């Protein structure tokens, strides 16, 4: 979308009257998309307070309590930004997100918060400023959708007040049910939000050996995250970060603002698509999170659990010092996220702000100088605690990476020069380049698991009325030994060092492998069942039986009957597709029966339920709606 849709609503008493007169949104329809819409105010005396919420009891009615407090504390920066312009009056808006445990869920589930925060500095106000946040709370990580919606809801709440919450909620409740993995057009006000939702958590995505043709389609979460902007100062470290995410290493992301740290965490999670990322991640983590006490209590030498935490409070550098991987991103000045110098000659190939190629020798990582060497040594010696005095984009890690940076990808990136006007469009191009590469990298990395996920179909002339073969059994040791003998393949061999096999060993032992493999395995088994069922629907039973011996025909009759009863049970549950399958299998059963010897036919007809099946259902046997649900052979 090129413009933000307008939502017509008058302010003041008229707005309240209009909201009161409108019928309330259907709670069940609204819950498909969002748990709550909130306005949270920072009170100088009482701290963070939920000023308004729709539905009114969405936070208070949660079993166990505490959700309102957790959401309130997660919806503000740790302190009023001191980087805002020191004008008599100024306004600073920002968008960020958080992820917190859902206390209402009996299992380990999470809620996603999407925040529109407004900080206003005014010398006439107490303490020189105030701030409020508008929050959308949802069980779904639909960042591309809710960020767009917040750009409507946030300013609207500041214009007309909290009554905007109910009005926007009514629009959301009128939307159709979410269609994960598909594009949707969702009406809001005078226009529509056009989004492509990420796949569902239980959607395995494309097969690991198949590279998706369209990189703009999301094959994982947070496809809209601005990778290039978030890691522009650390581009050569992206491959190390990719490995850390693949193997499930704990990572602490430090940034000056919630917007920068939440964007970076979202970018890291999106980096490994289409791999299912099973590690706990928090785009914006605060000391008020219920898990902080547990993490802060880890003993000296105790292994930090697999987590990715985005923080702005430098206190975490001391309290969570056992995290082996710390990455500092962003800039204290939100408008200064550049790696290249902006003074003097344009760093791009063009002049006067014309975009050019992003040159590697300007990244200050490949280029050697005594000063850069000393600074690098100092940065390494001081470690992440050096951020206490000055924020610098850097990566501190004890991890030895296997993957080499792909300079051919970096050389294709475009620098916008000194022109902010084209910065956003260049970022779109660069993000597409980076996403396509890491999608290809992850897909090729997962490709060796393909044989264990490969489905089969009945060979020509064979019977589809037998159980499909099992997928090949997987044993980690055999897999590693076979991979060592075959090699990593052409794509990975160019991009990985000689110790590439260690990356697979770490992946197999890490927290991401088994959930992903089980999901892919279950999907492959389901697909195989579908293919064999389709083969049964297409087979010419008379032609098939003509080539069989008498014993094989009897076995085939029993197999057809078994599958027919299974389909009839499914049709009794309201499965419309099974109705047509039942009709086809009934005809197949009668055809198989007709070629059996007379004595066998008489024996089979002695079972009254089977007799009903063979007579085309002229008599009703016990079962749902006259459907036979079981038989005795």
TrEMBL record:
<feature type="domain" description="UDENN">
    <location>
        <begin position="35"/>
        <end position="519"/>
    </location>
</feature>
<comment type="similarity">
    <text>Belongs to the DENND6 family.</text>
</comment>
<dbReference type="InterPro" id="IPR024224">
    <property type="entry name" value="DENND6"/>
</dbReference>
<protein>
    <recommendedName>
        <fullName>UDENN domain-containing protein</fullName>
    </recommendedName>
</protein>
<feature type="region of interest" description="Disordered">
    <location>
        <begin position="337"/>
        <end position="356"/>
    </location>
</feature>
<dbReference type="InterPro" id="IPR037516">
    <property type="entry name" value="Tripartite_DENN"/>
</dbReference>
């Amino acid at each position: 979308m090129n413009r933000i849709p307008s939502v017509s609503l008058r302010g003041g008493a008229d707005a309240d009257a209009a909201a009161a007169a409108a019928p309330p949104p259907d709670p069940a329809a609204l819950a498909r998309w969002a748990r709550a819409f909130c306005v949270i105010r920072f009170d100088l005396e009482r701290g963070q307070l939920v000023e308004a919420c729709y539905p009114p009891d969405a936070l208070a009615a949660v079993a166990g309590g505490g959700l309102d407090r957790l959401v309130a504390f997660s919806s503000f920066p740790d302190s009023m930004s001191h980087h805002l312009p020191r004008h008599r009056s100024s306004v600073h808006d920002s968008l960020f997100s958080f992820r917190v445990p859902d206390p209402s869920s009996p299992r380990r589930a999470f809620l996603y918060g999407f925040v529109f925060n407004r900080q206003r500095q005014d010398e006439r106000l107490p303490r020189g400023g105030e701030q409020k946040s508008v929050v959308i709370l949802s069980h779904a990580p639909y960042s591309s959708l809710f960020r767009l919606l917040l750009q409507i809801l946030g300013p609207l709440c500041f214009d007309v007040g909290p009554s905007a919450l109910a009005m926007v909620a009514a629009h959301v409740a009128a939307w159709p049910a979410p269609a994960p993995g598909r594009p949707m057009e969702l009406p809001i006000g005078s226009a529509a939000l056009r989004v492509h939702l990420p796949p569902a958590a239980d959607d395995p995505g494309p097969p690991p050996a198949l590279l998706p043709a369209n990189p703009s389609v999301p094959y994982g979460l947070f496809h809209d995250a601005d990778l290039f902007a978030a890691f522009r100062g650390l581009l050569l470290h992206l491959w190390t970060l990719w490995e850390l995410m693949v193997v499930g290493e704990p990572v602490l992301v430090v940034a000056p603002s919630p917007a920068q740290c939440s964007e970076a965490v979202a970018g890291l999670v999106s980096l490994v698509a289409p791999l299912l990322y099973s590690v706990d991640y928090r785009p914006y983590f605060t000391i008020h999170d219920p898990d902080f006490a547990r993490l802060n209590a880890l003993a000296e030498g105790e292994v930090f659990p697999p987590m990715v935490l985005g923080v702005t409070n430098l206190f975490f550098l001391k309290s969570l010092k056992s995290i082996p991987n710390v990455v500092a991103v962003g800039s204290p000045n939100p408008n200064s996220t550049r790696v290249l110098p902006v003074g003097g000659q344009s760093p791009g190939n063009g002049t006067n702000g014309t975009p050019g190629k992003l040159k590697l020798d300007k990244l200050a990582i490949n280029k050697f100088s005594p000063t850069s060497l000393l600074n690098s040594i100092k940065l390494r010696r001081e470690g992440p605690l050096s951020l206490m005095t000055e924020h610098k984009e850097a990566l501190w890690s004890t991890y030895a990476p296997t993957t080499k940076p792909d300079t051919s990808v970096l050389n294709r990136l475009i620098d916008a020069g000194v022109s902010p006007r084209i910065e956003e469009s260049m970022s779109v191009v660069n993000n597409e380049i980076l996403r396509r590469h890491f999608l290809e990298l992850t897909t090729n990395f997962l490709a060796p698991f393909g044989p264990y996920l490969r489905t089969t179909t009945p060979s020509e002339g064979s019977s589809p009325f037998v159980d499909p073969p099992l997928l090949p059994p997987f044993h980690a040791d055999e897999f590693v030994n076979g991979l060592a003998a075959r090699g990593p393949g052409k794509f990975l061999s160019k991009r990985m060092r000689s110790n590439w096999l260690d990356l697979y060993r770490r992946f197999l032992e890490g927290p991401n492998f088994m959930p992903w493999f089980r999901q892919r395995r279950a999907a492959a088994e389901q697909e195989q069942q579908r293919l064999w069922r389709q083969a049964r629907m297409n087979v010419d039973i008379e032609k098939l039986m003509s080539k069989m011996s008498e014993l094989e025909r009897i076995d085939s009759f029993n197999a057809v009957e078994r599958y027919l009863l299974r389909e009839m049970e499914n049709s009794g549950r309201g499965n419309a597709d099974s109705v047509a399958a039942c009709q086809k299998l009934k005809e197949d059963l009668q055809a198989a029966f007709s070629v059996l010897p007379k004595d066998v036919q008489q024996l089979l007809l002695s079972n009254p339920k089977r007799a009903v099946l063979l007579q085309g259902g002229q008599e009703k046997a016990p079962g749902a709606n006259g459907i036979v649900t079981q038989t005795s052979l």
